Task: structure prediction
Amino acid sequence: MSNNGKREAKVTVNGLTKKFGELLVLNDISFKVYEGELLCIVGPTGCGKTTFLNLLSRLIPPTKGNILIDGKDADPKKHNLSFVFQEPSCMPWRTVKENIAYGMEIKKLPQADLDQRLNKIMELVGLTESANLYPNQISSSMEQRVAIARAFAVNPDLLLMDEPYGQLDVKLRYYLEDELVRIWQELKSTVLFVTHNIEEAVYVAERILILTNKPTTVKSEVVVDLPRPRDFRDPKFVEIRKQVTELIKWW
Amino acid sequence: MSNEALVNNSPVTEKPRTFGEFISALFKNVYVLYAISIISFLLIWDVLSVMQVLGRFLPRPVEVLYQLYDMLLNPLAGKTLMMHLWFSLRRVLIAFAIAVVIGVPIGLAMGFSPYFNAFVKPVFDLFKPMPPIAWISLAILWFGIGEMSKIFIIIIGAVVPCIINSYNGIRLVDPEMYDCIRMLGGNKRQEVIEVTFPAAFPAIFAGIQISLSMAWTTVLAAELVGAREGMGFIIITGMNQSKPAMIISGMVVIALTAWAISMLVTHAERWVCPWKTKLE
Ligand SMILES: Nc1ncnc2c1ncn2[C@@H]1O[C@H](COP(=O)(O)OP(=O)(O)OP(=O)(O)O)[C@@H](O)[C@H]1O
Ligand SMILES: [Mg+2]
Result:
């Protein structure tokens, strides 16, 4: 987007490096995510996308480099982040409703606020009917919706999504892509969306980062400046998709 | 629900046309097969008894039934069957409660603290494989033949599964379970309360369940030695008085009780762990 220069950096990644033993996974990665941006990261399987998000949310420590959120070292205890994991991650002992409330409880929101947001977000992702079911009583796509709702419910400054729709069928994926964009527009969060589906990236992103194979660096960046709602058949859409596909050719 | 499926799929419900089809359908119905199973078992038993294949000491099923009826109404050593059952159950419940109260915290502490674990485990491993019954003689020497020694033996048997399962329950919580609360910025205390305990709960509950059936097994052994009441006493009296019908009656009641206990526990689990229930 041309006005990126004017936007505030939400996340600044400086020379981030991660090794697992001798295996160099992330090699000196640097980039910025802007306030309120919906940024997609695409890259080959096993290139370290999940690793990157785990570093960002401090689930694992970096080997070198740092990640700043609002100018301070990333720390889930200070920053309001939220993560939708690649694998289903509902707490099996909590109902749909309790799972969605989980993040807000951990962050100790006042009960009145919590209830109000809970009802709103459940409506938004269409889970009101299933509020009192347990995760093993719903389908895995509903479970992923719970994880998404839980993530949105805390009004995160920074939302991390790791191939959240990878396991879902096409129809539901389309629906949830629209839903993501709608919720993002409504809540104005900063979203980092990992996927290896190029079409999906072009459909939702404002900007796309393309990663290389291991050892991974940022190969290039594509700005998607299309009006919403976007159309897969729009020639401009197709053109950007082709451009990203060209860039991504790791094979 | 597989039983129901079997029944529903069986052609019985589809109104068989010929007699042959009717017969073959009948033999595919689970409940019919259950009935056949029980009836043939009783028949074979009866035949073995009447032909005295096992000498004089195998009573006929009807004799067992009569013995049961008799013990229900007429006291044996001053107590009816139900009172004997109650004495055994009371011992089990007291010892089981004590075992849970001791065993679960020890197991939890072992799971949480590697130091405490290193401190306790060698001794625990030494005692663990010892069958509780091996303690009977010592228990009697220490506590006499009263309630104390029996309860002691049952505790010995019942405490082990509580400890093992609580320990493993905590230790084997999937580390990924913590990712979610960590990314949300939860602290250590929240991790324990929100993740460790609920995630370990089914394993702990399973330990309690095993502990209860262990207690029921051990009480009989404890009552075989120097008890004046209880199900073990009935069996030993049956032996001393050469009344096999009494022994078998006791065995039947013991089995039925064990079954009832396991049904109860299954229901309790549905109640305490509703999230384990699948919708049909
Ligand atoms: N804890 C770990 N220990 C050792 N190696 C690891 C660990 N986690 C990840 N790796 C390795 O790091 C590399 C990147 O893994 P990662 O899961 O981040 O890839 P990814 O881009 O998310 O892949 P996918 O597209 O399959 O989700 C892989 O080669 C993986 O084997
Ligand atoms: Mg991944």
Notes: The pocket of adenosine-5'-triphosphate (ligand 1) is lined by residues A 20, 23, 25, 43, 45-51, 86, 196 (CB under 6 Å). Residues 2-58 of chain B form one domain. Chain B touches chain A at residues 176-177, 179-187, 190, 194-195, 198-199, 201, 273-279 (CB under 8 Å). DSSP finds twelve helices and no strands in chain B.
